[in-house]
Design brief:
Radius of gyration: 18 Å
Helix content: 25-40%
Number of strands: 12
Strand order of the largest sheet: 3-6-7-9-10-12
Order of helices and strands: EEHEEEEEEHEEHEHEH
Structural class: alpha+beta
Number of domains: 1
Largest sheet: 6 strands, mixed
CATH topology: Trna Endonuclease, Chain: A, domain 1
Number of helices: 5
Distance between the termini: 41 Å
CATH class: Alpha Beta
Strand content: 25-35%
């Protein structure tokens, strides 16, 4: 994998693109987060990927980026504040019907989630099983415990069913993940 560009060479030599995977889930989360902001519930944002611009063209009073590179791998997708608590999470999609491949999450992201938890933040994953139309929250502690105590290269769907929390899709907010977080931590709506 040519991280973070999201390009991988397959066994037949062709390139497989992985950028834009998960955009359906990310779109749903972004809509949900905007709802939270608009209703003064929480301030949670998608983190930008740190990019260093090296070449720019100026045309018609506008600036066009022609060349750049990723300065460093990003951490997780989202972070912010909710009811005085620090929230930090990664959003991932999988087409598998049976498991979530751990190759979908990078080691530095796992370490970041571990650090968030160790410092008192609320860290978790939101995983969408696209072909099953199911969205789960897997709390960071359960995720880290699984990684530390299993040699598998994936997390089985059964683990999500027994240790995760199903997020129902609704109109507004689209994916009300904070309702589940409240229930887990005993928050104001829990």
């Amino acid at each position: 994998m040519d991280y973070p560009k999201g390009i991988k060479r397959s066994t037949n030599g062709n390139y497989i693109r992985f950028d834009n995977r998960g955009m359906g889930l990310e779109s749903d989360i972004n809509i949900t987060n905007q709802y939270y902001i608009d209703n003064n519930i929480a301030f949670i944002y998608k983190k930008p990927t740190p990019i260093q611009v090296t070449k720019v063209d100026y045309k018609n009073n506008s600036m066009i980026i022609k060349e750049g590179f990723f300065k460093e791998p990003s951490t997780t997708d989202y972070n912010g504040l909710y009811d005085g608590l620090y929230i930090d999470f990664e959003a991932k999609e999988t087409t598998s019907k049976t498991s979530f491949p751990l190759s979908n999450i990078h080691k530095h992201q796992i370490n970041h989630i571990r650090n968030v938890i160790n410092h008192g933040g609320i860290g978790f994953l939101i995983v969408r099983f696209t072909h099953l139309n199911k969205n789960y929250i897997l709390m960071g502690k359960d995720f880290i415990d699984y990684i530390d105590n299993n040699d598998r290269k994936s997390i089985p769907l059964e683990f999500f069913n027994s240790n995760g929390y199903l997020i129902e899709i609704s109109y507004m907010p689209r994916l009300n993940y904070l309702k589940i977080i409240d229930n887990i931590i005993g928050g104001k709506n829990g």
